[in-house]
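**Sequence with structure:**
===
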Amino acid sequence: MRLSALRIVLATGAALTLGVSAASAVRATQMHPELGAKLAGMGEHGVVNLQVKTKSGQLCWTFGMGKMTGFTKASIHVGQTKTVLLELGMHYTTKGCAKEAAMTLEHLESKPGSYSVFVDTKAHPGELRGKLFAGMAHM
């Protein structure tokens, strides 16, 4: 009787270990270190590409905005809401990197479609907007 109880415990432990390993593998394959968004609004268009660097805890960005100027700020929002997840620098810059919390980077990598990039002008907050996706954006 004891031997069969021991076998059940060992089998349960092995199944749990395999389940945790499988969940970790699935999570790792769903991470997207390169993200992009096509931005549009007010008759203008642009793109932004993000690189998530989890080892160094950095998020880097590059904007392609054509000839449009006058941007004041860029940020990543939860969905299309006013809730800001993080700002892309203190002021708008075409290229840059910022240190971010590991959990924030993990959320971006695992569910990019849950976030949007807003680019503000002095006259219009969120003048250009676009939903993030896995991969690079091109004009």
User: Anything to note?
Assistant: Residues 3 and 74 are 63 Å apart (CA to CA).
